[in-house]
Specification:
The complex is a heterotetramer, with two copies of chain A and two copies of chain B. Chain A is α/β, with parallel strands linked by helices. Chain A has one domain: 3-Layer(aba) Sandwich (Rossmann fold). Chain A has a five-stranded parallel beta sheet with strand order 1-2-3-7-6, sandwiched between helices. In chain A, strand 2, helix 6 and strand 3 form a beta-alpha-beta unit. The radius of gyration of chain A is 21 Å and the shape is globular. The termini of chain A are far apart. By secondary structure, chain B is α/β, with parallel strands linked by helices. Chain B has two domains: 179 residues, Rossmann fold (3-Layer(aba) Sandwich), CATH 3.40.50.970; 129 residues, Rossmann fold, CATH 3.40.50.920. Helix content of chain B is 38%, strand content 20%. In chain B, strands 3-2-4-5-7-6-12 form a seven-stranded mixed beta sheet, with helices on both faces. Chain B has a five-stranded mixed beta sheet with strand order 9-11-10-13-14, sandwiched between helices. In chain B, helix 3 runs parallel beside helix 4 and helix 9 crosses helix 10. Classes of the chains: A alpha/beta, B alpha/beta. The structure holds thiamine diphosphate (2 copies) and magnesium ion (2 copies). One thiamine diphosphate sits at the interface of chains A and D.
């Protein structure tokens, strides 16, 4: 046998290739955010920059548990999930720089874009609203008897919204194939979870809806994968909604401008020690599921891809207003040009 | 030709579309076993089964949001608000998520949100609203408000087929009060965006819609008889997008315009219509555009109070006379 | 000793007089609704008529657990609670008949009126909205260190609203002195609870908010009193929110016009057998806390009071429009009379 | 006299009222330890403690509802929306509960709901809204929208003292962009319901408010220089109730009116203002009332797109010239 005695059976039915692919997405997410941070510092990002540092593990692993045809709705910190579902780094870069070539042609910000064919639905800013919408997408799967599953991410903070409540309850009573992932990262902007809700374990929120709730270590990539996979399979089997609380930590501020003064330094440091990517890499290495050369190869690939993506986006033209009035409706196809902008009026 | 009420016409429209197109389904509170608070969907559950007639929890935001999600996937949901007053609970979902979906994300959201609207039924402040102005202001939504049985049917069918989100304000005062002969085999489709000439006239144009069309017609008859003036009554039918052409051509014909709506004065749609006439037909005006609306209060419950706050036929007559005399 | 051997110690610290007073309110509630039903049949009620038949027990007993200064917010079926808090039958009659003399002078319907001095806040129709408002009232108690408590009623159906969720969560995390009573009466209009939510016990909804939840037999007057009293005392002691699920049954339709075709006849019959007033009366008698003469005296008093109330309301003038434009604001004091109603315009 | 930004003036106004009146408190998301997304309440927690500066869950309906409840009991809450765009989540609570409380139930609800509003900051569709039209239509609410630092202070103080619910739209583009000398000891109170003459003129009236006041003034200067015409600029300050008198008296003076607002055209407040002018000063008009507004789309994110959709100084100049030439 080629593998050493240290090689353990890979859990959760994953193959070696899949483990490597997960590593690729983790690295891609983190590195893409690093590139974005550079561009932000250069003043090339329009508006705010959001980071998922420390949360890439749960984002990537949960999305990885979905199959083709399944649809997820990401949050601002789910860049990783979108990449898994096929969003391209160049698209993300173009979005952040408001380029004409971006998926929304400069109409929307950052990772607010979608591709339902690939399987991700773009969010709006209003927290909680995507839960009912995803309940409806999952409802359409049930109504058409398609073996597809929906997955929606919400933050600890967003669990306080009325839309979250109405959406989860609706989904639960309609038994639609939906997985609700609560990313418990300790803060909603500056608000610690203890000020958001009086429960300790956000998984307990599932009790209000008569659905199973489970708390998972969000920085344990394989545990997240396994738990999500199980919830996805339940949903696909017609057993309805599952709520997963993934416990993790937001290591950077709400957005790049946030000085995080409300996050104790030691707390941040402690979570640095639990970095999900390092932990996963160690696990891969310790179990001999990958070797150093393998890691280096992936890292290089990521680096090259991102070099290309930055080059392919940075100098693109900003969106020009010639199309800006189109597609408010399908019909009429464009909004009126107002009189003070028309030469003839 | 069978005589059909406004409510029955609406029912028929939905039934026909549900028969025609499997992707149409309906969801809302008490619409299944009970057939809806006003029995608009009576019998639908038996006919189409529980996966196309879905009783939901009391969750207007979720009803609209779920409809939007299903619509993205190619279905054509009709979401019923038990009373349209409760659409306010879905205001965020409609104005921020639904209305912008095509613009920001290229998503088709062919949903219809409909419900019993309007006053004159002693429903008090929360069962009498006509919240058209709350949504009129949001690009991306379409708004329709039929006045006749024919249009109740024609507009619901058109709304269901429309590829954009449509809010359909059905007037509960009209449900069983008006009847019309509707041919059975005929496919009735009222084009969205087109007004209807409800009465031709030469001396004054009344622009109105929904239940007020009937009061305007009554007023026009009275003025014709007593004042020998001919009022033209334009029934807008679609509020957004608005049929500017019809409004302007009638304005240019009669040179006097009265806008009549059941909503409060301040911020009601009459303001926008006045502005458009002002912009496009100012030179044709022989008198200021004026409006007959509800007073600027919530809608009170006692018949005497409601009748005072909401516009009545006599108000339209009085306003028309003053405008004619201008 | 004058009392017989059968006399048991009265539970929950209630006195005999209090037991009798509770009986009085139960009887008053039921009889007032009977009077209203008569007036409805005579066409004197404007709009719909709502009945709490079978729920009077929980409504009266829970309100009875409050002290002076406490504030409750009733639902359409909490006539009993309002009467306990001091609403007058004549006010209710005038409201239902839209009289000028009614507490809202004809502006609002049925029991939608309030008296904060007496301790009840009028509801609006939009279900769930009173929960945040009552959370705010309870917050004001906490902020001012007043030893007062708020109590809000919601139906099984209203638990599905976003406002319910936001309000209970807000109250829980702010630890305000609030009692949330979920009246689980089996239906929301025609919708059975099984279509409203996937939980069996609505008390479980408390789990989502980190507050205690308890299920109580809503047709057991003393059990409801005791449970509410306990929750009220917890709140008053600064221990925060309690959610009580009172299990009961709506024996009449949603409103008087509703044919109840969706409620199985046997189900209604079974609950008739569990009538809370009969049960309470039996309990009073069996324990010799009252005798037949005592009951007859209260029944007579109720009857006389209602005769008077009907006489004092039936022929009152309907509201006249002379004041209808006033008090949209404090300033300006009245809305404009529109031009087409003015002689001078 | 110290130079004070618009944001600092707003802060000062709140601080002064909180010092003056113990019943004033503030609640909202991240307003305590963090001092608010824009640092408007920076330091408030230290100064007033956690029972007067309350960090809430992300629950706009509960924030507004709880404010209303506390207000019924005699407190005077200021509810912050982190961005005013999220007020849509409290739409039902505001329009149905809060706005009607006095009318239907005799309840005083002296709350202020405020938050960063408006565009020109590359905030995209959900951080750029100016949702005045959504509430303008509801009797029972008052709406204010200061343009200057003085009014930012004067209106927040007046709003806090007002016995009715007030929505205070503070313009985030102005926060740190404008400065004004504000005397320290002076009690600044801007009366609610009164417009401000921002620039006197004789040839054309611009009716506007909030950030657009500044663009209107810029345009007026340009027109004065290049066209030798004097534009009067009326800053409404309060949107509801509106200062009709000021609008009419300026209209009657200049005989030409241009309404300028940042909201979309259809259903924006310009419609109502046009109707009122039409009703009350029709005979004084030498030209149609016209409006410069945003285009009827959501607000896009890219600077180029946002600049196209929102009204700019050049648009006002172009519109004014056409009206002057009418
Ligand atoms: C309805 C609503 N209210 C307020 C906001 C402003 N806001 C944006 S992100 C955020 C915090 C979100 O926290 P959480 O849900 O925990 O997600 P995280 O950022 O931690 O991933 C807030 C308050 C919003 N987007 N939507
Ligand atoms: C937000 C909202 N949606 C819909 C309605 C219409 N409606 C009035 S009562 C009712 C059922 C309420 O059921 P429940 O909460 O269980 O109270 P119950 O009538 O059983 O006491 C419905 C759907 C409403 N009032 N508010
Ligand atoms: Mg969080
Ligand atoms: Mg119920």
């Amino acid at each position: 046998m080629a593998t050493t005695a240290k090689t353990r059976v890979i859990p959760a039915g994953l193959s070696r290739e899949q483990l490597h692919e997960i590593y690729y997405y983790l690295r891609l997410t983190r590195s893409l955010e690093e590139r974005l941070r550079n561009l932000y510092r250069q003043g090339k990002v329009i508006g705010g920059l959001y980071s998922s540092l420390g949360q890439e593990g749960e984002s990537v692993a949960s999305a990885y548990a979905l199959a083709e045809g399944d649809i997820l709705s990401p949050l601002i910190r789910n860049l990783g999930a979108m990449l898994v579902k096929g969003a391209k780094p160049v698209e993300v870069l173009r979005q952040y720089m408001a380029k004409a070539t971006s998926p929304t042609a400069g109409r929307e910000m950052n990772i607010h874009f979608n591709d339902l064919r690939l399987g991700f639905l773009g969010q709006i800013s209003h927290l909680g609203d995507m839960v009912p919408v995803m309940a409806g997408i999952a409802l359409s799967f049930r109504l058409r008897r398609e073996p597809r599953v929906g997955l929606v991410y919400v933050g600890d903070g967003a669990t306080s919204t009325g839309a979250f409540h109405e959406g989860v309850n609706f989904a639960a009573v309609q038994r639609v194939p939906l997985v609700v992932i609560v990313e418990h990262n300790g803060y909603a902007y500056s608000t610690p979870t203890s000020r958001q809700t009086a429960v300790e374990r956000l998984a307990d929120k599932a009790r209000a809806y008569g659905i199973p709730g489970r708390t998972v270590d969000g920085n344990d990539v394989l545990a997240v994968y396994e738990a999500t996979k199980h919830a996805v399979e339940r949903a696909r089997a017609g057993e309805g909604v599952t709520l997963l609380e993934l416990v993790t930590y937001r290591r950077r501020g709400h957005a790049e401008h946030d000085d995080q003064r409300y996050q104790p330094r030691e707390e941040i440091a402690a979570w640095e020690g639990r970095d999900p990517i390092e932990r996963y890499t160690r696990q891969l290495r310790d179990n001999a599921w990958i070797d150093d050369a393998g890691i280096a190869a992936i890292d290089d690939r990521v680096s090259e891809e991102l070099d290309r993506a930055v080059a392919d986006s940075e100098n693109d033209p900003v969106a020009a207003p010639d199309t800006v009035l189109r597609s408010v409706y399908l019909d009429p196809p464009a909004a009126d040009v107002l009189w003070f902008r028309r030469r003839d009026a | 030709m069978p005589e059909v009420t406004y409510l029955e016409a609406l029912r028929q429209g939905m039934l026909e579309e549900m028969e025609r197109d499997e992707s149409v389904f309906i969801l809302g509170e008490d619409i299944g076993a009970y057939g809806g608070a006003f029995k608009v969907t009576d019998g639908f559950l038996d006919r189409f089964g529980p996966s196309r007639v879905i009783d939901t929890p009391i969750s207007e935001a979720a009803i609209v949001g779920a409809a939007a999600g299903a619509a993205h996937m190619g279905l054509r949901p009709i979401a019923e608000m038990q009373f349209i007053d409760f659409i306010s609970c879905a205001y965020d979902m409609l104005t921020n998520y639904v209305a912008t979906a095509r613009y920001r994300a290229g998503l088709a959201t062919p949903i219809v949100v409909r419900g019993p609207s309007g006053g004159y039924v002693r429903g008090g402040p929360f069962h009498s609203q006509m919240p058209e102005a709350a949504f009129f202001h949001t690009p991306g939504l379409k708004l329709v408000a039929p006045a006749t049985a024919r249009d109740a049917k024609g507009l619901i069918k058109a709304a269901i087929r429309d590829d954009d989100p449509v809010i359909y304000f059905e007037h509960k005062f009209l449900y069983r009060r008006i009847k019309e002969d509707l041919p059975e085999g005929e496919e009735i489709l009222t084009p969205i965006g087109k007004a209807r000439m409800a009465r031709e006239g030469t001396d004054l144009t009344i622009v109105t819609w929904s239940a007020l069309v009937w009061k305007a017609l009554e007023a026009a008859e009275q003025v014709a008889k007593e004042d020998r003036a001919e009022i033209e009554v334009l029934d807008l039918r679609t509020l957004l997008p608005m049929d500017d052409e019809a409004i302007m051509s009638s304005t240019k014909k009669t040179n006097r315009v009265l806008i009549v709506h059941e909503d409060t004065r301040t911020g009601g749609l009459a303001g926008e219509i006045t502005a458009r006439i002002n912009e496009s037909a100012f030179e044709w005006l022989d008198a200021p555009v004026r409006r007959v609306t509800a007073h600027d209060t919530p809608i009170p419950y006692a018949p005497t109070l409601e009748d005072y706050v909401l516009p009545q036929t006599a108000d339209i007559v009085s306003a028309a006379r003053r405008l004619l005399a201008y």
